[in-house]
């Protein structure tokens, strides 16, 4: 049903409401939660554009920015004053996120001056506070127990904070780390090598055969050059993100803060336990507020937060061909 609604598999998604891009072929499914201290449950689905694949293994932080306003507008969560807190349980990662939504006069406010690099225009602030983010899929910060290892002759950090990731240094793959998304996407040999490494990373992280799956995600790092903490390019995973994913930002920020990772010597590492990691990406920066705690020679990741925006586009009914709803009897 989701494939039919989005118009997949078809690179144009012309027979559906998808935007013919990985970033605009996503679905959030939201409903009331019966979990203690949680308002709504959220299940994310990445709908492939050109393949008949719906992947619910990852989450999506940017889609999360719309969950709070949706829950309030649908009457699932009552307005709580000038700002309303919506506690979301992310089924994909089995974690909680608090969304703080502006609700003056008892309704969701979408108008504001908050600007997100890579997103046109401005809108009201939606603050997302991520909890329980360590070990989203693997159960541990460093699934292999090592902050850095070698895959196909390349140093890599395999880390799981909000999303499992393989993170490498751009220079080790013959890149500067400052390339545009279009420049990277045009290098098919680069992506073929990265995919082979990703497959091995998935195996080492205990994720099994990750063929056709979108986790682990990938990122490559370089030294900052615009005053940020680190420059990075994020892959989703078979295409370069035009900006940066929220969950990916949490994971890369953790990589910057954990000693001994591939970020060492590249990133400008904040010293405070409560700090902001600024990630430079192809269309600007993303600021990630991190809370950590010293743990001997290591660092414990407590939580992370970002400011996002959302705008209401439409409401109503999405139609799919009737044949999609008819089950085919087993042979």
Question: What's the gist of this structure?
Answer:
It contains six helices and 14 strands. The chain is of the alpha+beta class. This is 4-oxalomesaconate tautomerase.
Describe the overall structure.
It comes from Aminobacter aganoensis. InterPro entries: OMA_tautomer-like, PrpF-like. It holds the Pfam family PrpF. Belongs to the PrpF family. The chain is an alpha+beta fold. The protein folds into 2 domains: 1-110 and 310-324, Diaminopimelate Epimerase, Chain A, domain 1; 149-306, Roll (Diaminopimelate Epimerase, Chain A, domain 1). Helices cover 15% and strands 30% of the residues. The chain has helices at 2-6, 61-64, 67-73, 181-185, 188-204, 246-257, and strands at 26-32, 40-47, 54-55, 83-90, 95-102, 126-130, 149-151, 154-161, 163-169, 217-222, 230-235, 274-281, 284-295, 298-308. Strands 1, 2, 3, 4, 5, 6, 7, 8, 9, 10, 11, 12, 13 and 14 form a 14-stranded mixed beta sheet that branches. The relative contact order is 0.13.
């Amino acid at each position: 049903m989701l494939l039919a609604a989005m118009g997949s598999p078809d690179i144009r998604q012309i027979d559906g409401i998808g935007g013919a891009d990985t970033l605009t072929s996503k679905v959030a499914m939201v409903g009331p939660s019966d979990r203690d201290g949680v308002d709504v449950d959220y299940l994310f689905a990445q709908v492939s554009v050109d393949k008949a694949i719906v992947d619910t293994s990852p989450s999506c932080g940017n889609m999360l920015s719309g969950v709070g306003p949706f829950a309030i507008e649908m009457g699932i969560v009552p307005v709580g004053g000038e700002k309303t807190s919506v506690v979301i349980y992310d089924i994909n990662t089995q974690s909680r996120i608090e969304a703080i939504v502006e609700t003056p006069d008892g309704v969701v406010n979408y108008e504001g001056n908050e600007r997100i690099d890579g997103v046109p225009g401005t809108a009201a602030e939606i603050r997302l506070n991520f909890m329980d983010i360590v070990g989203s899929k693997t159960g541990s910060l460093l699934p292999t127990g090592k902050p850095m290892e070698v895959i196909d002759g390349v140093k890599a950090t395999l880390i799981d904070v909000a999303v499992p990731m393989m993170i490498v240094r751009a220079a080790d793959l013959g890149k500067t780390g400052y390339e545009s998304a279009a420049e990277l996407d045009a290098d098919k040999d680069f992506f073929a090598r990265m995919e082979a490494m990703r497959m091995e990373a998935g195996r080492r992280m205990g994720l099994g055969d990750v063929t056709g799956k979108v986790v682990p995600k990938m990122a490559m790092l370089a030294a900052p050059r615009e005053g940020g903490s680190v420059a990075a390019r994020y892959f989703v995973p078979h295409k370069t993100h035009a900006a940066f994913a929220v969950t990916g930002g949490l994971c890369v920020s953790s990589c910057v803060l954990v000693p001994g990772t591939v970020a060492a010597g590249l990133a400008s590492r904040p010293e405070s336990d409560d700090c902001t990691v600024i990630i430079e990406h192809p269309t600007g920066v993303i600021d990630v507020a991190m809370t950590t705690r010293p743990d001997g020679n290591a660092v414990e990741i407590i939580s992370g937060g970002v400011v996002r925006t959302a705008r209401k586009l439409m409401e109503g009914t999405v139609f799919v061909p009737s044949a999609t709803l008819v089950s085919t009897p087993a042979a």
